[in-house]
Amino acid sequence: MRGGRFILTAMRTPPNEADRLATLHRTGLLDSEPAESFDRVTRLAARTLNVPTVLVSLVDTTRQWFKSRFGCELQESPRDISFCTHTVARRQPLIVPDAALDVRFANSPLVTEAPYFRAYLGIPLFARDGHAVGALCAIDSRPREFNNEDVAVLSDFARIAEDAIHALEAANQSRDHDLQSETRGISLVTGISRE
Question: pLDDT class for 179, splitting at 50, 70, 90?
Fold first, then answer.
């Protein structure tokens, strides 16, 4: 970034941030391999909304990491310049018609430098326990007024992405339960306490 570090203004920390981050890490999504279930969502959402970029963004402690990205080369970006941080904190859709005119984002390197984001629509993604772990966002390189139909369409795609998150959470929980049961079984057979 040129000119030093940019800090977003008016950014709120989500409630119960420690619990939210613990939930995000339990999903096993961060730094995981690409998955067609998420890539299909970003591809279809981009085509349906006619935007050049759609991302599944996960908001971690100091970064946002993209589980899926259509039309963007970035794998992650600092959290303090993240549009999706605001979406996660709000826990509801966020519309930015022109980031260059929005005091929260106008000087952001995501706006002033490549990839030159201008319009943003973000829908929060919730884990099974209700914590917002990230966002599905549609981004345009030119100003754009996203309308109610756009919000409804992207919200439907967000629910599909959430289904994939929930399925992964359930699989991880089942695997952890099986591992705990196996460990208890070994302890009973050997007489060795694992506590």
Answer: low
